[in-house]
Design goal:
Shape: elongated
Radius of gyration: 14 Å
Oligomer: single chain
CATH class: Alpha Beta
Distance between the termini: 17 Å
Largest sheet: 6 strands, mixed
Number of domains: 1
Number of helices: 1
Structural class: alpha/beta
Length: about 100
Amino acid sequence: MHGPVLDAETTPGQTRRGEIDLIAESEGTFVFVEIPAKTTEQFGLSEELIPPEKRKHLMAASQKYLQTNDTTGPDWRIDVVAMELGPHCRVTRLDVVENAVEV
């Protein structure tokens, strides 16, 4: 994912059901980013913490942002930047999963 960040924790990306952590643009594609973080792999990887209901919320918030900002037509996707945090909240793992939520 390369390109400018358009918004972070954006109000326009919020709906009653959720929010978008980060909105960026990469080669003409809007990229809506979910950033789950956790401190241990005990209950699975952080990208696995996005249940079906949260995926629906991400879709709804992304579509709301596109409609609100009159950006019909451009390509878009939802990525996940998964973080594992160690002692003192230091990042021990950082993975980018493109198209993590099927649109």
